[in-house]
Write a structure and sequence with these properties.
The chain has 2 domains: 319 residues, 7-stranded beta/alpha barrel, CATH 3.20.110.10; 99 residues, Up-down Bundle (immunoglobulin/albumin-binding domain-like), CATH 1.20.1430. α15 runs antiparallel to α16 and α17 runs antiparallel to α18. The protein is globular and about 65 Å long. Strands 2-1-7 form a 3-stranded parallel β-sheet. A two-stranded parallel sheet has the order 3-4. It is mainly α.
């Protein structure tokens, strides 16, 4: 058996947007990811060896009552019509190549609807077949104030995954934002998490051989380093999506469509398709070179990069799967790959420190001065819920979980969604305070399908 393995990990996550706003910052975010990423990847994932992680909060939304009907209406009525309006406007201005690119793009939503309608009774979530889970609402766990708060995030997330997978879970746990601190080890171990991905680039050294081997810990799961040297071939300012032939995500038509390539030309799918083949060959060749001495190379990326942000990403992934077979690279599910590659001895906790895959590989994306108010407020809210005893109102628990989401600080830091993330944080904080002070006053299910298991999980606070 070869001692070299490639594991591609797709981390699937969306903030809880059901019932919170409309275009461009509401549930349409979820619908676009479903149409352009999750459904598009179903042509590639089965039998590929790619590992899929789905956050519980994304699962909550994919299972929400009525989401299928609303999504189908979005695919059938909204996006084809908006493409047609932009195409007509460009054709009237003599921009016929752009108009044709938009007409072709409208067909993506028609095909997505066909894929969606053809899904089995378990729907899109079952089709993705996630092997790994995560915390309930994608909280940055090292920023939690208490062990009880961490246990709540872990227990709600893990139990939701077990319920959706017929009780099955092999212990793969995605740390949101790859945010790790050694003090989490015993809590992860108690929750049953056996393997987590971490970014140890600044600890072990970029491109170091030690990046290709899991690390034991004294009191918790195996730490599986992601290989930033390989990840950045795909996801970095100069990565594959920046190549000239690909569809430009940033330049948009009036109705938020993308008829141009990165180099400014009208988008040509045949030209882009050929570029995806070349980039897949290059990626696998680089991985093969990286694994010349054996080990486990982990390329972990957000699922939504493939298809949503990088339109050609699903083509590229399919070509990578084929190239791995052609070039003799063993593309292996991460759990199997970890079992096949021996683990290294633990590092001292002080050497590991607190790490993430965010900017500067620290916590600054989620706690810098511009968003510090959100971090401190979430910690204070957690302390208030814990102080309420082992059985606080279920609504308070759900509002706390929503408040702890990493998304609000991330969106504010990157300036991606205007006032939306602050409004969401403010709203969840106010609702939590009301739930603690007057539980009966907000008994209506405003949070809809978020964390339905949060009530029974209150024992985690004990």
């Amino acid at each position: 058996m070869s001692s070299a393995r490639l594991a591609i990990v797709l981390h699937s996550h969306m903030p809880y947007v059901e019932g919170f706003g409309t275009w461009p910052f509401g549930e349409e975010w979820l619908f676009e990811a479903m149409a352009s990423s999750y459904l598009a990847l179903l042509d590639v994932l089965p039998g590929s060896g790619v590992t899929v992680s789905v956050t519980p909060v994304l699962g909550d939304q994919l299972e929400a009552p009525g989401v299928g009907e609303r999504f189908a209406a979005f695919l059938r009525d909204v996006r084809p019509a908006s493409h047609a309006l932009d195409a007509e406007a460009y054709a009237a201005r003599g921009m016929h190549r752009e108009a044709r690119a938009l007409e072709l793009a409208a067909g993506d939503y028609v095909r997505a609807l066909g894929r969606f309608d053809a899904l089995g009774p378990g729907g899109l979530l079952d089709a993705l077949a996630p092997a790994w889970t995560s915390s309930a609402t994608h909280a940055v766990l090292p920023l939690c104030a208490t062990a009880a708060g961490v246990r709540l995030q872990l227990q709600v997330g893990i139990e939701a995954h077990r319920a959706r997978r017929g009780g099955h879970w092999d212990g793969g746990f995605w740390l949101p934002e790859c945010a790790y601190a050694p003090w989490l080890d015993p809590l992860l171990e108690q929750a049953g998490a056996r393997r987590v991905c971490v970014d140890l680039t600044d600890v072990l050294g970029r491109g170091a051989p030690q990046q290709l081997r899991p690390l034991r810990t004294h009191a918790g799961p195996l730490l599986v380093p992601i290989d930033r040297a390989v990840v950045e071939l795909v996801w970095s300012p100069g990565g594959y999506p920046s190549h000239a032939a690909y569809r430009d995500y940033h330049r948009r038509s009036p109705r938020d469509h993308h008829p141009w390539a990165v180099d400014g030309a009208a988008y040509d799918p045949d030209r882009a398709r050929e570029q995806a083949r070349r980039d897949a060959w290059h990626f696998v060749a680089k991985v093969r070179e990286r694994l010349a001495g054996g080990g486990l190379c982990v390329c972990a990326i957000d699922t939504e990069l493939l298809g949503h942000w990088w339109y050609e990403g699903p083509w590229w992934l399919g070509d990578v799967v084929a190239e791995c077979a052609a070039q003799g690279v063993a593309l292996t599910p991460l759990d199997e790959a970890v079992a096949a590659i021996g683990a290294a001895d633990p590092l001292p906790p002080e050497q590991l420190g607190t790490t993430t895959w965010g900017t500067s590989r620290d916590l600054s994306t989620w706690d810098h001065p511009g968003v510090a108010e959100l971090a401190w407020r979430a910690r204070a809210a957690e302390l208030a819920v814990v102080a309420a005893g082992p059985h606080p109102p279920a609504r308070a628990l759900r509002e706390l979980l929503a408040l702890q989401s990493s998304d609000w600080a991330f969106l504010m830091t990157r300036e991606l969604a205007g006032d939306y993330p602050r409004e969401r944080s403010d709203g969840h904080h106010a609702a939590l305070a009301r739930a603690l002070a007057e539980p009966a006053s907000i008994a209506s299910p405003v949070l809809r399908n978020l964390a339905p298991l949060a009530g029974p999980a209150a024992l985690a606070l004990a």
